Amino acid sequence: MINSKKxxxxxxxxxxxFGTAIFVSNILSQKKLEDVRAIENRVALDILSSETQxxxxxxxxxxxxxxxxxxxxxxxxxxxLTYAENQTGFDNENLEYLKRSYFLLEIKDYLLMKRLATKxxxxxxxxxxxxxxxxxxxxCERMGYVLxxxxxxxxxxxxxxxDYHFDVGAINTLVSIYKVKSDLPALIINGLSYxxxxxxxxxxEAVPALKEFAARAKALEATATSTAETD
Amino acid sequence: MAEIQTFILYCSLFVSLFFxxxxxxxxxxxxxELNLEENYLSKDIQKFPTVTIIVPCxxxxxxxxxxxxxxxxxxxxxxxLSIIAVDDGxxxxxRRQLARFENHLQVSVLLKENGxxxxxxxxxxxxxxSELVGCLDADSFVNSDALRKIVPxxxxxxxxxxxxxxxxxxxxxxxxxxxxxxxxxxxxxRQMLSSIGALYVTPGPFSIFRxxxxxxxxxxxxxxxxxxxxxxxxxxxxxxKIVNSHxxxxxxVAPTSFPALYRQRVRWTxxxxxxxxxxxxxxxxKKYGHIGIFILPIAASSIFSTLFIAxxxxxxxxxxxxDASVKFQTVGFSWKLSxxxxxxxxxxxxxxxxxxxxxxxxxxxxxxxxxxxxDGKVRISRxxxxxxxxxxxxxxxxxxxxxxxxxLRRQVNWR
Lengths: 231, 415
Description:
CATH topology of the domain at 43-254 in chain B: Spore Coat Polysaccharide Biosynthesis Protein SpsA, Chain A
Oligomer: heterodimer
Strand order of the largest sheet of chain B: 3-2-1-4-7-6-8-5
Number of helices of chain A: 7
Distance between the termini of chain A: 86 Å
């Protein structure tokens, strides 16, 4: 009496839609991870290029270093990896590998930045940020917002973020060099450690270079306002 | 916990998709038949059976006169059609309105103390002498050709009841426009259920029965305030055939305000759940065909899956709002003059969003077919907009209340 064929057909079509959804989602996730990998390759190449340029510096002057000396893509790379980490459907093994590469690239960029600062007498403007994804870190999320806001405000500021519990030897070495405790979030600014949450204003106080940036931004704003008023 | 939640979500989406695919396959199977049926119904009727229409009224002074007038205007031989209006102890001017028809040859008026709709219907059923009997709620009106589009179905001696297509009468408010689209969906669904013999409600507005249904199965029951659902389930249980005539149009005055709509829908959902409990032996029982094996279980489970999906959506949006508020409290709004850059990377391409989009797409296809079936053509109207944007937010409210009431009532009864 019941046309069971119809149920089978409906089931098969539904299963095909489900299968297609899973397949398409996987393909797109893979494509996203390939994008991340491509950015990582570009950053690695940028760093290699900068290192080579830096080696040549022995024979030339700091003036030859252009504004694009350090890679500009580290920030967006970090955002993409954080997004991928918070989504389901990404291949965890691949993601772990990309995160590992990202942390290493950050450390290489950081070392280059330090050497550049020493060689050319530039005030280093960078923050080392340690967070955690494993245990509950109540303030890590808020700290992340502050650092993103700071990076938006001062594009020259370099924020190097590291997952404290991620098993990478170089991160462990950084942790032991700066004696970073597990009381996260932790920030290393000019060799000093700051634990817990710090607002944008507090960090602007703590990083002298940012103070200069802030003063410069204010002066620019004041000029812009007075020009507008004169007009 | 999160895994269980995801598993239930996947199951709910699978069942929703399966049901939509099932409906579409059924539509493809029967659309030819629907055209043939239309041709058959447009032919002249050779033999007109006698018909009685019962109009139960309780405080319907504003609409009852028009309801009876629409019945008197039916294109049907006058000597074959009689109307029994029953005043179920109204406290407004309903009796005064009914008195205007007392001298009409086709109309008889019965007065009684308030006892509920089923008692009014049963009182009238005692007086019925015709071959067919129907009911028309006193807030509904019929198209003049409605009965002519129903009666030919009874040429088939196995058909015991015929349901009509119900439309919203002259929508004016946002909620009425929304219900207009919802009723179109209902027209499509009822037609599909009819073609697989799985109608589980014979709506109050103008469902027509053979009188022997009531002599053999008894009169209307209270049915948890949904006597039209109870009688349909009783008929299905006794394997009495119910079909739908989508060409027979009946108009009903839909609730204008949200509280009225909410009360009506809580009653409907509560009625369905409790009648489903009363007729639970039909569930997953092959003996009853599609209605037992598939339609009743899916109709009951869809209440819970809708509530689960709605709860999940609310929870996700709430946590997103909390995140946004934490961000705002931490760094304030970031005013950027440059336009936001688009990066496909940040579009959620997980399995669940893709499946949800597929379900929505199939819903839109069914909505298109429903409006086409109800109105003959599809026009982008404000009702569609209201339906797509508001409906999903209000449905969970009455579903939750009906489930809550059912659990509470059952607990009280069990003690």
